[in-house]
Amino acid sequence: MHNLDTTNRETRNSIHLKLRQKLVIDFLTNTTFSTNEAKQISGLIKYCKGFIRDASLREQSKIHEAVSIAINSQLIPLPESPEHIDQKIREALPFNIPIKRKSQTHAIVSALHCIYTFSQLLVAYFKQLQKLLSNP
User: Fold this and answer.
1) Among residues 75, 21, 68, which one has the least CA distance to residue 42?
2) Predicted pLDDT at 18
3) Which distant-in-sequence residues (6+ apart) come within 8 Å of 39 by Cβ?
4) Cβ-proximal residues to 118 (8 Å cutoff; 6+ apart), any chain
5) Omega before 79 cis (within 30°)?
6) Mean pLDDT over all residues of the chain?
7) Measured between alpha carbons, how far is residue 103 from residues 55, 106, 107 in Å?
8) Residues 6+ apart with CB under 8 A from 85
9) Cα–Cα distances in Å, from 65 out to 5, 71, 111, 128?
10) Left (φ > 0), alpha (ψ -120 to 50) or beta: where does 53 sit?
């Protein structure tokens, strides 16, 4: 009545592997990595590798290192002056630049590190406050 072909275990496993690989490829191509940190991206890659039963490079630290290098290669150098920062980026920052309160520095530096590469925030990013008179 029906003409059904039988498959052996090896063929079935190969079909399942290709299906899993296709699902992972579709998942990864539809994921927005720019909003994730290196740790989250590393976790996603580790999960995907487990899903497709990939035994290569099981060390999470090496995956995390490769992801960090890839992220850092996409960052641009911090401009010399805060006025050179794009207006859309300035609006997205949690506080205004130049920084008036040192308590805001950590939040601004964390936000800037998502877009720019720098080792130390330049003096131009801090508002120079007037010195107080010694005798009022």
Assistant:
1) 68
2) 92
3) 64
4) 77, 78, 112
5) no
6) 82
7) 46, 7, 8
8) 79, 97
9) 47, 10, 21, 38
10) left
- Give yes or no for a contact between 111 and 93, defined as CB atoms under 8 angstroms apart: yes
Residue type, 11: T
For the segment 67-93, the average pLDDT, to the nearest whole number, is: 84
DSSP secondary structure, 77-128, as one string: EPPSSGGGS-HHHHHHSSS-SSBS-GGGHHHHHHHHHTTEE-SS--GGGB--
Tell me the two tokens of residue 46: 């580790």
Does 1 have pLDDT greater than 70? no
- Six-digit token pair at 58? 């099981």
**Residue 99 amino acid letter:** I
